[in-house]
């Protein structure tokens, strides 16, 4: 019999997504460049499973019902182009090719354009949720031709995570590279969220001298309230983990050099390109870059001076403030990410529905959080909302939390603890709520040295002054 879908690339994600489709009653044909992985998968799954192992792309395509649906789960970049070229001779008009990797959205736009002429429907689909999500329910962000979405929707709804209200965490995102664009920004927000949590951990550890297991209890408790999220939950679990060999908290033994695969950097780069401010996402990328300079930092720590004072305040009060500061800065970081999506939607004609994006991030993905239900509601109530910070629910949350963020940053400054994520979040908030910024001076300077002209508050027109 013919399979309903083909999966190419049986790495961590492809393997588990194939099993997820199979568990929902679909026949899945699988293929991997290294044949051994295919054999192992078929052997370990057992003969009763609806899986068809194939050992060439021709065999894979011959085993698929038409129009074919093929999910590529190979490494992003050149491997995707190579697979498209190799698959191309076996595909026919109307077939659907889905790239589920973390491809750069401009690559997806290009591939979409190339395949369009042959009538092949190219879908760039962001997938979030990691290994477990792929198996038990990821958040899916498919973009591309609407016709492809209509054919894929029932299957994707089946395998996707389900939000609390039972709604599947998948929806049509928009044309061309929209799905991969949205996944990129999802990852940018994820970078910011992780950085804010890391700063909170650092402050509490250094100011209060708390151990990892003590911090684990604090994060676990915070996970019961407004901060409830996957990232806070796993932070508690990470902090609780004891290294079996040494008996020490494992986190204390892990090298403090953060790696990155590029999606956070792309988010910052693209935000600069289209003129959207995402300082907290950029700060998260910058802090990963600084973290990677381990040797330099160790040397600099011997010669560069900072404050020597210790924290003398009330520990309970600091915990209370830090929880509020984390929530406030998290709202501001999400507002930056949503603002970028809004701008990109206009720039690229993606016609993004921000309430739908927040809705499909409520479960399955790495940034799933209680906060996303509020974001969904805020955009449902006011689809034209220009900035998330202006939604009544977040305006009020920030009114009651911004002072805690200020207090926590003052403590961090006094102790010399770098809090680039939180401080950019507060600066963004203060800049956005400033009716007047000092850009008048910048305009005057530009006009002084470059005759760049300026506009005036009191008169219409374009002006230039002989400053000397
Ligand atoms: P893995 O590293 O586990 O697997 C990579 C797959 O790509 C293997 O099947 C490998 O085949 C295949 N491949 C490579 Br590498 N180069 C190839 C080429 N030139 N031609 C054909 N196949 C090639 O990756 P993964 O973690 O499953 O990730 C797959 C995609 O999903 C990536 O784009 C990733 O960014 C994205 N993603 C990952 C996660 C996650 O949590 N891991 C989450 C969301 C998205 P081989 O067996 O022959 O080497």
UniProtKB/TrEMBL annotation:
InterPro entries named among the record's database cross-references: 6-PGluconate_DH-like_C_sf (IPR008927), 6PGD_dom2 (IPR013328), 6PGDH_C (IPR006114), 6PGDH_Gnd/GntZ (IPR006113), 6PGDH_NADP-bd (IPR006115), NAD(P)-bd_dom_sf (IPR036291), Pgluconate_DH (IPR006183)
Key word Oxidoreductase present: yes
Keyword NADP recorded: yes
GO MF annotation, one: phosphogluconate dehydrogenase (decarboxylating) activity
Binding site for substrate: 102, 128-130, 186-187, 191, 261, 288, 446, 452
Enzyme Commission numbers on file: 1.1.1.44
SUPFAM superfamilies from the UniProt entry: 6-phosphogluconate dehydrogenase C-terminal domain-like, NAD(P)-binding Rossmann-fold domains
Domain named 6-phosphogluconate dehydrogenase C-terminal: residues: 179-468
Primary enzyme class: oxidoreductase
Recorded catalytic activity of this chain's protein: 6-phospho-D-gluconate + NADP(+) = D-ribulose 5-phosphate + CO2 + NADPH
Family classification: Belongs to the 6-phosphogluconate dehydrogenase family.
Self-association and partners: Homodimer.
PANTHER family: 6-PHOSPHOGLUCONATE DEHYDROGENASE
Role description: Catalyzes the oxidative decarboxylation of 6-phosphogluconate to ribulose 5-phosphate and CO(2), with concomitant reduction of NADP to NADPH.
Protein name: 6-phosphogluconate dehydrogenase, decarboxylating
């Amino acid at each position: 019999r013919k399979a309903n879908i083909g999966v190419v690339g049986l790495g961590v994600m492809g393997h588990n997504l194939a099993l997820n489709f199979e568990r929902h009653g679909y026949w899945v044909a699988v293929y991997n460049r290294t044949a051994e992985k295919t054999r192992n998968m078929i052997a370990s799954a057992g003969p009763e499973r609806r899986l068809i192992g194939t050992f060439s792309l021709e065999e894979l395509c011959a085993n698929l019902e038409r129009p074919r649906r093929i999910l590529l789960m190979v490494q992003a970049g050149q491997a995707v182009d190579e697979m498209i070229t190799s698959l191309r001779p076996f595909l026919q008009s109307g077939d659907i090719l889905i790239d589920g990797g973390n491809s750069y959205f401009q690559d997806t736009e290009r591939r979409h354009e190339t395949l369009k002429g042959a009538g092949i429907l190219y879908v760039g689909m962001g997938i979030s949720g990691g290994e477990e999500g792929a198996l038990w329910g990821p958040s899916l962000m498919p973009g591309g031709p609407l016709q492809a979405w209509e054919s894929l929707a029932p299957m994707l709804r089946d395998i996707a995570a389900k939000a609390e209200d039972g709604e599947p965490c998948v929806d049509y995102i928009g044309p061309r590279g929209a799905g991969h664009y949205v996944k990129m920004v999802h990852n940018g927000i994820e970078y910011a969220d992780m950085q804010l949590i890391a700063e909170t951990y650092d402050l509490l550890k250094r100011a209060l001298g708390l151990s990892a297991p003590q911090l684990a209890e604090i994060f676990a408790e915070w996970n019961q309230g407004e901060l409830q999220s996957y990232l806070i939950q796993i932070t508690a679990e990470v902090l609780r983990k004891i290294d079996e060999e040494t008996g020490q908290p494992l986190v204390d033994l892990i090298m403090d050099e953060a790696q990155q695969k590029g999606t956070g950097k792309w988010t910052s780069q693209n935000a600069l390109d289209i003129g959207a401010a995402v300082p907290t996402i950029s700060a998260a990328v910058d802090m990963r870059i600084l973290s990677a300079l381990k040797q330099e930092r160790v040397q600099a720590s011997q010669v560069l001076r900072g404050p020597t004072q210790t924290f003398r305040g009330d520990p309970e009060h600091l915990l209370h403030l830090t929880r509020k500061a984390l929530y406030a800065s998290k709202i501001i970081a999400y507002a930056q990410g949503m603002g970028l999506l809004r701008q990109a939607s206009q720039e690229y004609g993606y016609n993004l529905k921000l309430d739908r994006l927040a809705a499909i991030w409520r479960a399955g993905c790495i940034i799933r959080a209680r906060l996303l239900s509020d974001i969904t509601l805020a955009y449902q109530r006011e689809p034209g909302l220009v900035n998330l910070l202006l939604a009544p629910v977040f305006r009020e949350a920030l009114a009651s939390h911004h002072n805690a963020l200020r207090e926590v940053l003052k403590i961090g400054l006094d102790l010399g603890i770098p809090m680039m994520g939180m401080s950019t979040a507060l600066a963004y908030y203060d800049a956005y709520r400033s009716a007047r910024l000092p850009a008048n001076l910048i305009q005057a300077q530009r006009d002084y040295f470059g005759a760049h002209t300026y506009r005036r508050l009191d008169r219409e027109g374009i002006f230039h002054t002989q400053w000397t």
